[in-house]
Known about the structure:
This protein is an alpha+beta fold. 21% of the residues lie in helices and 38% in strands. It contains three helices and 16 strands. The strands form four sheets. Strands 11-7-8-9-13-5-4-15 form an eight-stranded antiparallel β-sheet. Strands 3-16-14 form a three-stranded antiparallel β-sheet, with no helix packed on it. The chain is elongated.
Amino acid sequence: MRTHKAGFSVITVVILLFTVIMAVLVYTASIAVINISGFIFIALLIFIFRFFRFPNRTIQFNQNQVISPADGTIVVIEEVEETEFIKEKRIQISIFMSVWNVHINWFPVIGTVIQSIHFNGRFMAARLPKSSHENERSVVVIETENAGKVMVKQIAGAVARRIITYAKPEQTIIAGDQLGFIRFGSRVDVLLPVGSKIHVNLNQKVTGGLTLLADLPQ
Length: 218
């Protein structure tokens, strides 16, 4: 188990801040206060290391499969009209990520990135349907070889304040490459071509890079 690079700056800031606080407390506070502060710091550091964990996973895929881009719970499976980029009907699968989930995001398919755009927005609870359109988000559109375009949305939640996206236009990607990282609670939407065979159900727990979400239409 490793620590993801997205957490390095957070961990550094927390350690430096605690060092300053403890230096002040040594001269101004009682032993009890110092001990309590130390316990709080250790608990916070454990949580941060756990949040930014980078699990070792062997990811297998083929040209027609869609793997889960994130750890979490399936909260939406429905047909929608995509009006921003693809401008066609798509099957949307939404994965809610709590603060206890791994927050690395993976590309769900093999293909070429044709668009990668960040939008500022609100920070509503990520479980709400309108968070897909109104929250801060990054949108990545991937052209697959046989099934057309697949869209992935990284969506900030009520706690999340930083979406990291590594996708670049014209980048050739494979399922399991790192798409990005979302700091704290959030959501990832995958919009697939109509006719895709869905292999997951509502409220199902999924694992990023491992759970098969769907087969693309041939």
